[in-house]
What we know:
Blueprint: H1 2-22, H2 31-166, H3 169-187
Helix pairs in contact: 1-2
Amino acid sequence: MRAVLLLLGVLAAPEVAAAAQEAGGRAGIPWWEIFKQAVNFSILAGVLFYFLRKPVSAYLKERSDLLRKSIDEAARARADAAEKLAAIEVRVAMLTGEIAEMNRKMDAEADEETRRLRKSAQAEIERLRAQVQGTADQEVKKARAELRREAAELSARAAEEIVAKTITPGDQERMVRENIDRIREIVR
């Protein structure tokens, strides 16, 4: 009720000021004008109240129901979200265990792969060593054969030089005859 009177006073203040000016500067409050305006306002407010009470009441009830429904839906959504969050937290906890298990398996597989690779590498190293040793042995044999051949050639040259220096043409002729005789004996 106080609010209505205060509202009326606020709404009437501009009218009071305008009426004071129309009075030609006469001092005093135009109570009759204020009363007429208050009656007009009361009639307008009564008519508006009479005709708008049911639609506004229905609108406010509908709005209240809609808000209640929204609050209920929000509460359900929150409860659903809490359930989903709990389920996700359980899954995350399970995933943590699964991840730890997977990491353990990967470590075991990595260790096994490392052992396998080391074994394979060791076998390859042994194979290469054997191959290199075989190649080295062949090269040594070739080198020895080459050295023997060169030694034989050098020995033959040295022997030729010695023979050429020590054997006379008569000795050569005698040796040729002896060899021819031996060949004849073999051929017979």
